[in-house]
Structures are given as structure tokens and as C-alpha cells.
Amino acid sequence: MSVPAASFPPHSLTARFAARAARRQWRERWLGRGLRGLSLLLALLLLALPLFLLFNARIDDAWREALLPLLAGSFKAALYAMLVALPLGLGAAIWCARFATPGLRGLLKPVFELFEAVPAVVLGLIAALILAPWLAQRVLGLVLLLALLPLLALAAGWLWQRLAPAGWQRFWRGREIGLLLPLAALLVPLALGLGQAPLFASFAAQLQPASPWNGLVIGLMLGLATMPVIFTLAEDALFAVPADLATGAQALGATRWQALWRLVLPVAAPGIAAAVLLGFSRALGETMIVLMASGNTPLLQVSPLSGLRSVAANLALEAPDAVRGSVHYGQLLFSALLLFGLCLLLNALAEGVRARLRQRLAGS
Amino acid sequence: MASNASRPVQRRDLGLWLAAAAVSTSLLALAALLWVLLAQSWQAFAPAPVALLQWRDDAGEHSLLASVLAQDEQVLIVRGSEWQRRGDAYRRVLRSSLVHLSFPADALNLRLADGREILLRGSEQSWRGLDPQQRLVLPGADGEVPVRGADLVEVVAVNALSGWQRLGTGLQRALGFAGGTGGSGLFAALLGTVVLVMLMSVLVMPLGVLVALWLHEYAGNDQLARGLRAAIANLASVPSVIYGLFGLVLFVHGIGGSLDVLLSGTTAPVPHWGRGGLLWSALTLALLTLPVVVISVEEGLARVPPGLRQAALALGATRAEMLWRVVLPVARPALLTALILAVARAAGEVAPLMLVGAVKYAPALPLNGEFPYLHLSQQFMHLGHGVYDLALTGSDGPRDLAQAHATALLLLLVVIGLNASAIVVRNRLRERSRELSA
């Protein structure tokens, strides 16, 4: 016996599904549209920011006198910072990615990442109040330290490879910084003491800085601040190079350093170049360290022993008091636009170079 | 050279030691920075020994009870009782002019609520349990010093303290400083920072998550998505002070200025919205942290295993339901990471705030019991800005400098703690996504 379909009692679930289907459809459609609209709004806002600067920026004939020392100051600070950050950041990246034992790498990498997060104002404070007055008396000691440190490392390595028993060498392989750290810590007071020795008094007098707040202090502290940026990016690039490459080279008789220098570094070169570019961009735009420790004197001098005033620090100093719509205001915005453009350019370059690295790694 | 031949692997391996030297130098520099910060912060709170000094100069013979702050072979830097004003009693005393120097065991250091320190001799007990209304008689004061029992914060017999007691007193003072509301406390700056960062999170998190959701789930590769991706990637490389300027031009002068005109009809002589304030600062910081949020949320969305999405869709969920019920809950740790990273970035940022609203001293708190409780247009105090101000424009030499370091240490602890927790959360997320997709 069959029952006609129409006589089925309408199931409550079917009805509820039918009612909900419309609502679900509506929700589905409007979530997509809403998200798209929001993104469009954000894109417009982001586009508006530089345009706003552009429309308000103004230049007059005096811009050359006003802006040139600032630009020169920015570049001076960034260049001296790179002199510190490049050897430290790249050396540390090479060591961490390629030579350190996995355990040591797992320890060092977070330390450097946390270092990157240290607020600039803290570093600026130490640079301005502690480092600057302390360093003013010890420039020669610092020069000696910087000269002796690589020599010490090379000598220690040479002696270690010559004299240490093979078992020790095997144990310390990948942990060599454990040997070097106490040596370097010993060298610091030694070199600084040597710099203060009466024998070198005439040299030391020549290296007396004009002001304690100078390019040298900025170079050291800004270099330390940008070092982790370079480290993180370069380390990623170096670590991404397949391990087989280096292992194969070492199996064929290359030393660890040769494998790195001849094989890994060329492959990772675009990534390292990107790291350098981004580090430079960061140093160019960094404000607080330069603001606090550079003396903020707009000088056109290359010497690391004289002060400087950078575009970014100038903005932080003068923009809060600039009268809206005045010539000064327009000039400040123009300098900001210049800095903005420079950083964008460096970033775009770095992105382009990094795309090449990705291609290369995908191809290999 | 026989030994050389037996170990050929060690040829020209010295460059490696240079790399090791770079690591060692960086680590030493980091340790030195931390050490300086800790040592200087301790200076701010360590109970300085109180000396009885007698010296002779052109003006005759002097005698003074004073805290010895620093000394070398030639001079002593001391601070006597601050009868009138905080920071008005510093003195350099030449060692050659000293007649007498002793550290009496009954010397007392009285600290007042406004940060002044008064040095006396006597017994600690006689200063305990005073009536708050009682006027205190301070022996040795030059002129009238109106002080009541309630003003007295701390009485310590400094010279009689043992090592542990010194540490305890120092830590107690540090806690008092971190939470203090008076002239020299950090409470206002801490509250300002917290309110600012919370407001920023409220603004940036929904926007960042929704945009990341659209970019990762809906956009595919159309023109708008590509443009937005490029804009956000480039935004991450813009110097923070430029954001401050954006905030100043767009929010403060643009929107704020128009709001003022709109609300009051004319250009008010004293701008209300058209000057730096809490809301504009939060908006500026939200813009600054947007790339951080979008990038880390996108990374988290990419880690959600495709099997989960497919299962949800196969069971009849629409895409919106799949995202809301499955993908977002699984990616929740990524949202948390994004939030923590954004907060850490914002908490340490000072340069943009100098342009859009942080001030050295704000008369009122941004969050208080008066309607409307949260004062969006008000200027506020901020930890990082406080470090800058104390360091460069402090009125009370050594003490402000030491307190600047203590503030910096607190800021550093907050930021490092946030970042470390972000790293932990992210690692846990990675493990979980590996488990889910296994």
C-alpha cells in the first residue's frame, strides 16, 4: 500500500533548512562583499597617506641649505651603523646558520630575535647617557679593540687547530664561540687599558672627539640596533640553502669554511643583499637613537668624531611645534616625503633581490 | 709539517673563527647593555650611605649630613636634606678640604611623598606610628618645612642596614616607584601606555584579521589584492617617525581639525580634537602595527591544514561558516601571536607618539572616574616617552637619570616578555598544525 507523496507531513527539519538556506546564502554573499569593501577602504587609506604628504609638502629656494645637512646626517649615521652592523650581523648569521650545533642555534636565534625587539628608546638612553661620556675618553682603546679582536680570533683559531688534540676539536666543533667568548671578554679591558696608556697619549689626544655625542656613538649603537635585522634575514637566507650542497663539498675534501665561501654564500647572495638593503633602510629611518645620542647639530662633516642631525630626528624635534600650513611645515613634510621615498626604494630593491633568491632555490 | 699532513681537513678554516668572533662580540655587547641597565636602575633605588661631613673653604667651616652618591680620589658628590625642593641639595665636596668624614650608625633617611629626602640623626622607632595629621618637627631644617605625618613614606636607618636589608629596601623602593602616583611615580605613564595599547589593539585587530582573511581566503590574485599586498609589505619598511607625521597631518590636523570646526562651528582658539590625543595616537599605532597583524595572521591561516577546510565544505558548510566555525578557531593561536607582536611593537614605539600626543606631564589620567571615563581627546603620559623626557630634560640630575634607566628597564621587561610569549605561542601553534595535518 503506497502513500501519496503530498500526504507526507511536512518535516520540521526540512522547513527549517529551507528557511535557513536563504539566510546562509545571504551571509555567504555579504561576507565576501564586506571583506572586499573593507580591503578597498584600507587600500584607499594607504594610498591617501603619501598623497597627503605630497599635497602638503612645499619647497622653496632655501631647501638646499635646510635639507642638505640633514640628509648628509642621515646617510652618515646609517653608513657608520652599517660598518658595525654588517660584520657583526653577517658573521653571526653565517655562524648560526652554518656552523653552530643545532642546540646552540636554537639558543642563539631567539636571543638575537629578542634583541631586535628591544625598544630604540632604551638603546638611545644608554647611548646618550652612558656610552657617549664613557667613550669620549676611550676612542683609541676602541680602535685598538676593533683591530685586535679579529686578530685574536684568527690567532686563537690557528693555535687551536695546530695544538689541540683531535678529541677536543671534535667536541668543540660547532661550539667554538664557547672558547672565544672568554678570550674576547678578556681582550676588552686589555685593549681599553692599552688605549689609556701614557705611551699613546699623543695619539689619544688626536682622537679626542669634538663632542661626546657624535657619529662614533651613533655608529656603535645604531649598528647594534640594526644588527639583529640583518642577522635574521641573512640567517634565514643562509639556512634555506640545502644542506646537501655543503655536505657534498665537505665530502670532496673542502673545509667547512671553503664549502660556505664557494658554495653556500653565492647561492644565498641575493638574500644577504636584501638583508643589507633592509638593514640600511632601517638605519636610515631610525629616530630615537639618533635623536638622543647624536647631539642634533646639523654639520656637514664626514668625521665620525663630530655630531650630526638626521632627517628623522629633525622631524621628531620640529614637527610637534611647526605651525600648520607654514613654510616650515611644508619643508618638514618635504623632508619626510624624501625619507619615505628612499625607504620605499630600498624596500622595493630588497624585495626584487629576494624574489631572485626564491627563484634560485626553487631551481636548485 | 708532518702533523699538518695528517690533518688536511683543517686547511684555511680560519674564516670560521671570524664568524665566531662576530657572535661573541654581539653577545658581549648585549650582556654589557643589560648590565648597564641593571646597574643604573639599582642606582636609582639603592639606599646611599649617609655621611657626616665637615669641610673648610673660603667661606669658613661647614658641617653637613648628606648621602654620598659618588666619590673618587678628588671629589665627593653628595646630596643633603632637600628641605625646599626635590633636587636642590646636590653638592661637590673636594676631598682636600675635608676635615672630618664619618658614617654615623644612627643616621636616618626620611622619604616624603613628593620624593624629597631628608637626613636626620635619631632613632628609627620615634618616627614610627605617627598621627597622619600631626605636624612634624624636623630638627636641623632651615626655615619652615610644612610636613605632616601622612607625608612620610619611608624611614630607614641607612648606615645600619645589612646587605640583604639594603636589597630589600631597594626593591621596595623600586616597587613603590613603578606603582607610584606622586611626582616621581610611574603609575600615570604605565596607565597611559596600557590604555593606549589596548585602544590600539581594539582598532587594529578586527581590521587586520578581516583584511588578512580576505587576502588569504577570497582575494586570489586580483588587482586589488596584489596592490594591497604590496602596500602592506612596503608599509612595514616605513620609518616609524613617518607614521607619526601621517598621524599629525591626517588625523590630528585633518580629521581632528575638521571635527573641531564641525562641533564648535568656528576654529576654536584652543583646539580640542585638533591636537595630539589618545585616539589619534592609538590610530597612528594601529596603522603602524597593521602589517605585523596582517602578515602573522596570514601565516597562521596558511598553516590550517587543507583537510579541515575540505571536510567542513564536504559536510555542507558554506565558505563563511567554514571560516567562522573551523578555520578561525584553529588559527586562534596565530591571532594571539599577532596581537602579542602588535602590542610589543607598539609598546616600545616612541618617535610617532612625540608627534601625536604623548607629553611629559599630563594633569589628568586618560582613564578615570569622571564621565565619559575614557578621555579620547586627552594628551597622556607614556613609558617610552617618559624615558626620553627624564633622560634629556630631567630637572633633578642624577636621580632623574637613574630613574630613566629604571623606567627603561621596566619598558624592556614588558616588551621582551611580550615577545618571548609570542615566540612560545607560535612554536606551540606550529606543533599543533603539524599534529593536525599528520
TrEMBL record, chain A:
Transmembrane segments: 37-57, 77-97, 117-136, 142-160, 180-204, 216-239, 260-280, 329-350
Keyword annotations from UniProtKB, A to Z: Membrane, Transmembrane, Transmembrane helix, Transport
Predominant location category: membrane
Listed GO CC annotations: plasma membrane
Location(s) in or outside the cell: Cell membrane
Domain ABC transmembrane type-1: 71-350
Gene3D superfamilies: MetI-like (1.10.3720.10)
Source superkingdom: Bacteria
Keyword Transport set for record: yes
Xref: InterPro entries: MetI-like, MetI-like_sf
Membrane-topology descriptor: Multi-pass membrane protein
Keyword Ribosomal protein attached: no
Gene Ontology biological process terms from the UniProt entry: transmembrane transport
Family: Belongs to the binding-protein-dependent transport system permease family.
Protein name as catalogued: Binding-protein-dependent transport system inner membrane component
Automatic annotation (TrEMBL), chain B:
Entry's transmembrane regions: 186-215, 235-259, 279-301, 322-344, 404-425
Example of a GO MF term: phosphate transmembrane transporter activity
Principal location class: membrane
Membrane topology, from the record: Multi-pass membrane protein
Keywords from the named record: Cell membrane, Membrane, Transmembrane, Transmembrane helix, Transport
Biological process annotations from GO: phosphate ion transmembrane transport
Protein name: Phosphate transport system permease protein PstA
